[in-house]
Amino acid sequence: MIVDGSKKLIFRLGGTGFLLELGDVVEVVERIAGMLDSSRSDIGRGIVSALQFRQTWIPVVDPALKLNIFSVVKLKDKKAVILRGSEGNWALLVDQVGELSAAENFHSCEIPFLLKVSAMGFYSQVKLLYNEPMIVFEPERYYGSTAVSI
Amino acid sequence: MSRFGLFQIDQFKFAVSLRLIKKILQNSKSYDLPRLPRTISAVLVDAGQLIPLLNLRQMIGRETQQEHLTQSYQVLVESEYGTVALPADLTGRIVDEQKGERSTIVEQEVDLGGVGSFIYQNEDYSILDINFLAIEMTQVFWQNQPDTGGARRHQ
Prior knowledge:
Number of domains of chain B: 1
Oligomer: heterodimer
Distance between the termini of chain A: 36 Å
CATH superfamily of chain A: CheA-289, Domain 4
Number of helices of chain A: 2
Shape of chain B: globular
Number of strands of chain B: 12
Shape of chain A: globular
CATH architecture of chain A: Beta Barrel
Helix content of chain B: 10-25%
CATH class of chain B: Mainly Beta
Strand content of chain A: 35-45%
Strand order of the largest sheet of chain B: 9-1-2-12-11-10
Number of domains of chain A: 1
Structural class of chain B: mainly beta
CATH class of chain A: Mainly Beta
């Protein structure tokens, strides 16, 4: 597969937009209903379920829990963004997956001093896409050996 | 000569020193970001910068779920910690301090810095201490730190 590193994948959780390096993405699964096993959860590690993906079960992480984001989208209606990690593939639950956008469409934007303390541990970069703030999603904060549970 | 900008949100009237007011926006789009402090209702984007929008209704005890959706104006104010935005339903006038009366008696039940009030045409406007409000945003964080030195208030 040829990965265009200059593009970013946009996804949404609640009303918040996020961007993800395309190089981290394996695949987007649009329909996850019937492919989940909720008994395989490990809430301490942020794993809410397991998803059947390419003849195996992979952990499913819901970042909304850690980010304290309220979502009206039911679990069965969510999408899964499959990411490659140091411990293998894992699935990120999101409300919507948007379009790919070229890196040059994003403009760096500093997190205000007064918000840095509250963002600490959850995100460290925000970029503007057509004047809308997008959080740079850092997968290692949410799953893997370096992720810190809350 | 000192001047105040006079504003109102719900029934709460407040005054901000004109030298601190950077800009007044009307119906500016606001955005939620995760893990905002309770005292911040959203962020605005102005000139490529993120501006925290103070949840003034929450601070005066009149919080609603639609805080940042219902106000019409956002007053961008400079603080020692960067620009912050204050919501307002009504944007009032710019008034010379000499045309009103300053009072150091704080009749407001809510502690918003204790600077006092500005009485203009029989209306009482609480003078906001922007630096106090700004540092108030970080209180939850500071209170959880083992050694925050002088950053805490009311020591």
